Each structure stands twice: as C-alpha cells, then as structure tokens.
Amino acid sequence: MSDSTPGQPPVPQSAPATSGWAAPSARPFAPPAGYSMPPGYSAPAQQRGAGAPPAQKRSAALGVVPLLLSLFAAIVVPVALGLAAFEIGQGALTQNVLTSAQFSPATLTPVREWVLFAEIAFWVGTVCGTWALIQGIVAIVRRRGRGAGIAAVVLASAGPLIALVVIPSALAVGATMNASGSL
Asked: What global pTM score does this model have?
C-alpha cells in the first residue's frame, strides 16, 4: 500500500485522479533538496503552529459616547428642567392657577426667561437622548462597547420618565412656596 523504510513513517500514496481533483496530502510539501530559506525569513504564523492571528482590539467608543449622552439627557437635563419648573412655579403660578380649569399664557410673562430656558433644555435633552438611544443600539449590534451601549439604551429610555417625575414636582413645590409666602 505505501512505501516505507524502517524508522520512517509511511508515505501515503495519493489516489488516482479520476475527476481531476486529488485530495491534499496530510503533510505540507517540503522544499526541494538544496533549497534554503532566505536570511531574515520566517514561516507564516499558520505554519509555525501559532494558530489564528490575534484579533484587533475594537474600540469601545461606539458605546461610551451614547453612554455619556444618555447620562446628560437623563440626569443633567431633568435637573435643569426641575430648576426651571421651580422658578416658573415660584414666579408665576399660584395654588389657584394650578387647580383652576382656566389658564392664561400671560401668567408666564414674569418668568419668560425660565420658560425659554426650559424649552431649550427640553429640546437639547430630546436630541441627546434620541442620539444616545440610536447609537447605543448600534453599539450593541456591532459589539463595540456593548456594555456601555446597553447602559446608554436603558438611561436614554429612562430619561423621559425621570423628567415626568421631576418637572411636575418642582412646579408644585415652587407654586406652593409662592402661595405660602415662604420665600
């Protein structure tokens, strides 16, 4: 079946090629007799037995950026909106206005700067939160900064809920302090 000499492993014989294709041999081809490797040459990594080349470390910035944006949108913006709501409640609204069915926008005239500040903070928070949500999903899908991307999606989703609690509470506290004359 195979030619072998004592002390050497048997050399497999290849099957006759009937279909034009021959099975690869188990051993790589040896260089011809008298051939030597050029100076400074080393065999490729797969032939050295090192396995697959090391994978490149992927940047986690794709997940960190939306995490920072979501922290801004879920913490800083609701605090700014709460401050504005407190000042609006304290400067313009009274307990009667909060419980009455009629409301006039003219009531907000004394605190129009705070109303503008609240509107700008709301839209900045909306843009940052939406950006963080989308980029966080992309980071999760691409597996680049996946943990930070998950945290960003959770925080960006919780931001509006946090604002929905902070704004009416601060508005009511400001209006109550104005009505009671504490400040």
From this structure: 0.62
